[in-house]
TrEMBL record:
It comes from Streptomyces sp. 900129855. The lineage of its organism: Bacteria, Bacillati, Actinomycetota, Actinomycetes, Kitasatosporales. Residues 72-158 form the MoaF-like domain. Residues 28-47 are annotated as: Disordered. It comes from the Bacteria. InterPro entries: Calycin (IPR012674), MoaF-like (IPR053892). Residues 1-24 form the signal peptide. This is MoaF-like domain-containing protein.
Length: 161
């Protein structure tokens, strides 16, 4: 179990460090409304990491598509609607879990402009989910802990509605 816990920290950390050289986040034609101005890090650091950040996706629906070969034994995709700065709804749109829905409270950390770590607990399934969502590269990495199972996936993140 120690290895799984280390993975929860290592994966987002590696992504954050590797993304440090990526160009600043710019609004693309499919990104929707202009992004809020960056706020200084709440922890007083000079890293640019901002806890309790507001996602650029608030008020929008995005599709996280993890492809056809996932740890769930086939395809997996979900529509995620960010209803507020702390609430989201999701519906699984592909795969064995198709039709599963939940409304959750989430927290965010801005790693750099356009790159966010998003965390939530799913009351219905009991799963704990951590997403690293890159709105500038349209990539999502998901780490899910459900009971004693640990699942990690990477997929595309596109504006859906």
């Amino acid at each position: 179990m120690k290895l799984a816990r280390a993975s929860l920290v290592a994966v987002p950390l590696v992504l954050a460090l590797g993304a440090g050289t990526t160009a600043a986040f710019g609004v693309s034609s499919d990104a929707g409304a202009p992004q809020p101005a960056a706020r200084p890090a709440h922890d007083g650091s000079r890293t640019g990491v901002e806890t309790d950040a507001v996602l650029p996706s608030v008020g929008q629906t995005w599709l996280a598509d993890f492809g056809d070969d996932t740890p769930f034994g086939g395809p997996f995709a979900a529509e995620i609607t960010f209803t507020s700065a702390t609430q989201l709804n999701f519906v699984v749109t592909k795969g064995a879990l198709k039709g599963a829905t939940d409304s959750v409270t989430y927290t965010t950390t801005r790693i750099r402009p356009g790159l966010y770590m998003v965390r939530w607990h799913e009351p219905k399934s009991g799963a704990n989910v951590t997403h690293v969502e890159d709105f500038s590269q349209h990539v999502v990495v998901s780490s899910i802990v459900a009971g004693d199972q640990f699942v990690q996936m990477e997929g595309s993140l596109t504006r859906h509605k």
